[in-house]
Amino acid sequence: MNKDTILAIDIGGNKILIGETDLNGEILNRIKQPSNISSQRAAIEQLIDIIDEYMDNYVVGNIKAISIDTVGRVNSYDGIWYEIDPTNKEKINISEIIQSRFQLPCYVLNDLVAATVAENLLGIGNATKNFIYLSIGTGIAGRAVTDGKIIFGKDYDAGEFGHMVVDSESNVKCICGRKGCVEPLASGLGMSNRAHELLEDYKTNLKVLPNERVSAKDLFDAYDLKDPLALVVVNQSLQATSNMVMNLVRIMNPQAIRFGGGVTTGGWYLEHLQKFLEPQTMRFVKYGVKNSKLNPNLITLKGCALFAIEKLNSKEQRICQQSINY
């Protein structure tokens, strides 16, 4: 007899990862394809196609629900995807579309919420229920957890920490319209852009070519060799990130900060970040500022599945409680 499973789909900016998990969140099978998030409609059309393909060719268990995480602003309670970003938005109820098509319960959440769910249930959440999860990749965002609960915000827009101003004197403009936000100073794309912008001002052995991105790894390697351009760009990133972290610590009083995302993978960034953190500000962060111990390639997919498992369990509990009350 096949075991009960969850079909989890992680829609990222560059890829869709689809995985089938057991009811403990362990991944039994997964496939990956390039993603198309040029619009929400394009993403949903691709989503339906990939679920169809999986159902026809790859199922290993008895799928009880479908869970989907995606970029952008999402109402997890009603399954509504409001926007990819403020310039690319259409209110779409993904849950209704997928439930109608596949006759299975469907749950939808933001990708950073999914990663935070995994961190809460499998990671630092086992030591403290008050922490912040941060992701630094192409952009910067995260979620705060207080007393074990993720803060969503009235309009499901909480956690956009990349748009926190960390340098009031900076002339670097953010996509949000303000200057001095942490994302254009500290993210992977932000550091690459800064390397291009400052290229004529500093000597460098870095390959900074027109219309080509400078990788975080190349910047870190050059930093270790004391490359003048890399020193300026990376120190600016580290200072901006440390200001964001310390601001969040003062606002939220977390016991831990956990990082994910491509820029922090490998540990170099977090190791060098520590000296920028003021000990007095950080004195209540009992479990420190560290990388997540969870697999960075699977944390979001696992969280996506665990979100659905929790929803199914709470639904069963309500049904049982209603039966008892009856």
Automatic annotation (TrEMBL):
Pfam families: ROK. Gene3D superfamilies: 3.30.420.40. Its EC number is 2.7.1.4. GO terms for molecular function: fructokinase activity. InterPro entries: ATPase_NBD, ROK. Keywords: Kinase, Transferase. SUPFAM superfamilies: Actin-like ATPase domain (SSF53067). PANTHER family: BIFUNCTIONAL UDP-N-ACETYLGLUCOSAMINE 2-EPIMERASE_N-ACETYLMANNOSAMINE KINASE, ROK (REPRESSOR, ORF, KINASE) FAMILY. Belongs to the ROK (NagC/XylR) family. This is Fructokinase.
